[in-house]
């Protein structure tokens, strides 16, 4: 019974995606054809015929570790023995864009495909905290922080313009909703929408896991893959993770106008994955 309940749950999640894609077909199907570049987030496991679309800030480090155990042919047995930075080395995992078109089509049609999603604004605050408030993320500060400060901060000091390491959440939001940003280059993967990273209107995912039910969903997927007997999804201490309360606090200083514009940017993710409009928002 347990299994069939879970199966029903995933069916409901799939239907929600299908319905949202249909209802928003104008905006969601602009690009009819996926290019190989669209597929670089889809990690392929040949041995177990699985495809995992990774979304940064949704347990993707641990899922990449698990995929390395699955594809490592015995090289690794414990996901948590793999250092986090090792999990993000692109050559350690094969992605779908590395295959020929017929091979891509064959895998999309026959492999079990899954992704994990998270409440969009909680994911956004998590990305902001990780990339802009940690001193060690100097590459992000240089690449994005300096740009955000230059564009969003009046009378910025020379040091702030040079370092970009003190971006405020309000400035980050202003940068995200700035039409100039959207035109200039695609969002960085850490704040790109799931809908743009994983293309759920074009790729039919068999399973949609949620960050809120990470362990159950992950272990269900491993069970379906036939590896559940010897591989469990790593559990970890959630001490530093971004919570709903934290997210609420971050949004306190965002004007209702900016909240409304930001919600528009992430609206499809909210609808598609059945996340309600957060109660703390003051939408216009």
TrEMBL record:
Pfam families per record: Sulfotransfer_2 (PF03567)
GO molecular function, one term: sulfotransferase activity
Membrane topology: Single-pass type II membrane protein
Assigned EC number: 2.8.2.-
This protein's UniProt keywords: Carbohydrate metabolism, Glycoprotein, Golgi apparatus, Membrane, Signal-anchor, Transferase, Transmembrane, Transmembrane helix
InterPro entries associated with the record: Carb_sulfotrans_8-10 (IPR018011), Sulfotransferase (IPR005331)
UniProt main location, coarse: Golgi
GO CC, any one term: Golgi membrane
One GO biological process term: carbohydrate biosynthetic process
Subcellular location: Golgi apparatus membrane
Superkingdom per UniProt: Eukaryota
Membership in a protein family: Belongs to the sulfotransferase 2 family.
The name this protein goes by in its record: Carbohydrate sulfotransferase
Source organism: Eurypyga helias
């Amino acid at each position: 019974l347990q299994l069939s309940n879970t199966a029903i749950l995933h069916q409901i999640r799939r239907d929600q995606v299908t319905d949202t894609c249909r209802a928003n077909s104008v905006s969601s199907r602009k690009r009819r054809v996926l290019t190989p570049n669209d597929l670089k987030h889809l990690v392929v496991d040949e041995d177990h015929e699985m495809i995992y679309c990774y979304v940064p800030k949704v347990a993707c480090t641990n899922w990449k570790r698990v995929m390395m155990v699955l594809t490592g042919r015995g090289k690794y047995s414990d996901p948590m023995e793999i250092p986090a930075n090792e999990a993000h080395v692109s050559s350690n995992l094969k992605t779908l864009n590395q295959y020929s078109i017929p091979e891509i089509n064959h895998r999309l049609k026959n492999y079990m495909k899954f992704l994990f999603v998270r409440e969009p604004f909680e994911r956004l605050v998590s990305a902001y905290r990780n990339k802009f408030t940690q001193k060690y993320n100097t590459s992000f500060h240089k690449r994005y922080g300096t740009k955000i400060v230059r564009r969003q901060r009046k009378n910025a000091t020379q040091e702030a313009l040079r370092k970009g390491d003190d971006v405020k959440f309000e400035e980050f939001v202003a940068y995200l909703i700035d039409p100039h940003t959207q035109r200039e280059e695609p969002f960085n993967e850490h704040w790109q929408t799931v809908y743009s990273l994983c293309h759920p209107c074009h790729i039919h995912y068999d399973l949609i896991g949620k960050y809120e039910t990470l362990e159950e969903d992950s272990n269900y997927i491993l069970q379906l893959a036939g590896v559940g007997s010897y591989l469990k999804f790593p559990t970890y201490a959630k001490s530093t993770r971004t919570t709903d309360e934290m997210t609420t606090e971050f949004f306190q200083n965002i004007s209702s106008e900016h909240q409304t514009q930001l919600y528009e940017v992430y609206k499809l993710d909210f609808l598609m994955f059945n996340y309600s409009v957060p109660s703390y928002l003051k939408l216009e």
